[in-house]
Amino acid sequence: MHAAVHDSIAFSFDPQQVADYLEANGLESTIVESGSSVAEYDVVVTFGHEETLFEAPWVHCIRAGIDEFPTDRYAETDTKLTHSPGIHATTIGETVAGMMLSFARRLHRYRDNQHENAWRVESYDAAFTLADETVCVVGLGTLGEGVALRANALGMDVVGVRRRPKPVSGVDSVFLPDDLSDAIADARFVVLCVPLTEDTEAMIGANEFQAMRDDAYLINVARGPVVDENALLDALESGDIAGAGLDAHTEEPLPADSPLWDKEEVILTPHVGALTDSYHEDVGALVVANAERIQRGESMFDRVA
Ligand code: NDP
Ligand code: 7N6
């Protein structure tokens, strides 16, 4: 089997890493540039979509979220589309734990002060502990469970939101999407872990910021458009919420003139919350497993279309 490794992966890391992993695990691999024909390959491993990918029999997206892929059109063609769920619980769980700890223990502010050689102690009531604080995890799949597990370990109370009223280990109360305002009302942290869909676009807007506590923090590790970014800026400026940890942004890269860059109580990361030095292996293993299934005549895992 011959894999094309699409250079759109360079948006996140060196595509050669994936190519080397696939070669080491039995798949011939070639890096292909955007716009190149991929008709001769058995699979294209890619970060993003482009029209030429429909030439291939199988396209594997290295992301869990496939909101930027025209999934309806894949369903109408002979090109199979698979994605990469199930590999982000630890990375995102730790990223969110890190953001929550920083806000509580004020580490981001002391790091800012360090750049000014400033021995500056924040007001006595600025610091708090995560223990006994409540986090509301919106979306209780791979990401949400990874966040809930670590929040539990830090002594936090966890509530969550999902479409199906199915209990989740370590989550005290599971709310349905219609009860989002109730779910977030008492939380010190609201963590977004949902896919971007018609239902979740702008699910956090002015009403939700008003429903949140004034001392609450929003953490978005999902997709930028899940949050109404103008409403977020208003909420930060008016004091409707205390701050935000943002790994996902409406426009990526976040424009240099975005007012979010200058906010003291905003921690910004450039959509790296899931990255780790073994991401190429995690994603490569999914491709190898499906290649083996095809060779055995079995149906593929993680099919989107
Ligand atoms: P999963 O499919 O495992 O989980 C999604 C969860 O969202 C499910 O619990 C689902 O509910 C819930 N959900 C879906 N729609 C709604 C809704 N309208 N209201 C409330 N809950 C809803 O996905 P993952 O956890 O793997 O990933 C989630 C998203 O996070 C991805 O689609 C991607 O966009 C983003 N992501 C971001 C990363 C980053 O680098 N920052 C890394 C990986 C993913 P139910 O269980 O009831 O179906
Ligand atoms: C890291 C992207 C996803 O949807 O956006 C994330 O999986 C992770 C390559």
From TrEMBL:
Keywords, comma-separated and alphabetical: NAD, Oxidoreductase
A GO MF term: oxidoreductase activity
EC nos: 1.1.1.-
Pfam families documented for this protein: 2-Hacid_dh_C
Domain D-isomer specific 2-hydroxyacid dehydrogenase NAD-binding stretches: 98-273
Domain of life: Archaea
Transmembrane segments: none
UniProt KW NAD keyword: yes
InterPro entries: D-isomer_DH_CS, D-isomer_DH_NAD-bd, Dhydh_Halo, NAD(P)-bd_dom_sf
PROSITE patterns: D_2_HYDROXYACID_DH_3
PANTHER family given in the database record: 2-HACID_DH_C DOMAIN-CONTAINING PROTEIN, D-ISOMER SPECIFIC 2-HYDROXYACID DEHYDROGENASE NAD-BINDING DOMAIN-CONTAINING PROTEIN
Protein name: D-2-hydroxyacid dehydrogenase
Taxonomic classification: Archaea, Methanobacteriati, Methanobacteriota, Stenosarchaea group, Halobacteria
